[in-house]
Specification:
This protein has helices at residues 27-30, 48-59, 68-75, 82-91, 112-117, 146-157, 218-239, 275-291, 314-323, 343-353, 373-384, 395-409, 421-428, 436-442, 451-464, and strands at 137-141, 161-166, 181-184, 202-205, 246-252, 263-264, 296-302, 305-306, 328-330, 341-342, 361-365, 391-393, 432-433. By secondary structure, the protein is an alpha/beta fold. The protein has a single domain, classed as NAD(P)-binding Rossmann-like Domain (Rossmann fold), CATH 3.40.50.720. It binds NADP nicotinamide-adenine-dinucleotide phosphate. NADP nicotinamide-adenine-dinucleotide phosphate binds next to helix 6, helix 7 and strand 5. The site of NADP nicotinamide-adenine-dinucleotide phosphate has 28 residues, from helix 6, helix 7 and strand 5.
Amino acid sequence: MSDATPKKRATPAAKPAPAPPSPDSKAAPAAKPAAKAAPKSEPKPAPKAAAKPKTAAKAAPAPKSEPKPKIAAKAAPKSEPKPAAKAAAKAAPKPTPTPKTASKAAPKSEPKPAAKAAPKSEPTEFSTPTSKPVAKRLLVTGATGFLGRHVVAAAKAAGWIVRVLARPTSNLGPIAGLYDEVHTGDVTDALSLRGSCEGVSAVVHCACAVASTFDAGRAADAAFMAVNADGTANLADEVMTVPGLRFVQVSSTAAMGAPQTAVVGPDSPCQPKTPYQRSKRAAELLLLERAERGLNVVIVRTCVIAGPGKERSELLKMFKLVKAGLFPFLGNNLDIQKPLIDVDDVVQALLLATERGTGGGVYLVTSGGRHTMREILEVAQSLTGGPRTHVAIPVAAARLAARAFAQAGRFLPDWNVPITDERIDLFLADRQIDISRAERELGYVPKHQSVEEMLGATYRYYRQRGLI
Ligand SMILES: NC(=O)c1ccc[n+]([C@@H]2O[C@H](COP(=O)([O-])OP(=O)(O)OC[C@H]3O[C@@H](n4cnc5c(N)ncnc54)[C@H](OP(=O)(O)O)[C@@H]3O)[C@@H](O)[C@H]2O)c1
């Protein structure tokens, strides 16, 4: 967990990218297809050919404009390991300018296999005048989280040079060998982000506070806003120091609240209610405002994600309740639709968005299938061996309880009440999500639509971890 040596050049990754947790065969190709689909509004979706020059120009600037100082200052405060790198850079014009992003050396928990394999051949010299194609660099935030880990693995497998943004306390162990560089920083600390985007071709912003979609209370509100909104603003401002740099924002259907329309599209009105929902929508709005000032941002809203790797999730809670025959079902309509998506498909969409999609565009992604609560509960019962029962709760009774809890909550501002009107609304929401824009403009093609498959992989992960 820790970056023992915060600002060292990262090293880890072995080029032959170890088998990623979820090799997304779809995501991989996505990295190249660049911009055909990209509309005019797309700044520099740069088809690989174009991307390099740009990237190179920025990453390997002339000695004088050398941005190192900045990065060094930020990434390597005291233990600044630059002297060497800097000296080398001067002595030899082309030597890898990458070391800039300061990375901390792989944490102790980090497996060495990768580290050994990559030392010298480290793919960081994209400024080297070589005839072979120059790899592009992707900055991934939230890389140690559930989604971020899958993004890192798929990006690495697709040939990206992967730089991760990690907090000093982040545990890089789970992605050991899958990333190339580390920039130590915290999105809530703008200064710590300085230099994180140097030499980068695209940013996938997964970092987020997601304790629980339904956490309530003033503390939760402030915490969600600090990381999800203010933190995103800090990162966006850093991204804007690199003209045209593509910023892919991982958003959530939660940002829309609980739409009452049967079909929800990317332009449907948003009515976020909970602290988490408001923070995700606030992040979108501040990004869209910056898009008008030149930020090359694409927002990808995903629904609940299934797949291995999420320790605390609504799906784990559901499995536990279903296994005990205690899943609380509001109302009596088991056929309401609930969107779901496999983590590999989310990754696919995000990597596609690094080069496709309209700047300032919002894209919704799901499995594309029509999954009902009935189907989800049946699969969960089948997987857990739980009884084919659930606790039916009349909606009116649930609303009464929510009101009572809300009253009590007024005296306990930070109490996370068990049931709220917003939660009821979301549970009852019966909606189909329109992903046609993502299919059309990003080239997104969901590969997983089987609930058995998606929930099965998720459930097996929990079983293996002894979480259920
Ligand atoms: N999971 C889902 O079902 C789902 C559904 C819809 C949308 N999403 C979106 O997907 C994204 C990723 O979610 P997730 O489930 O992967 O979350 P997660 O597992 O909780 O991971 C959160 C990541 O954010 C990092 N982080 C938190 N605060 C940070 C800060 N102040 N500075 C830098 N990094 C910070 C964490 O780093 P540490 O390791 O240091 O804690 C961790 O890597 C979020 O934007 C979320 O809204 C997720």
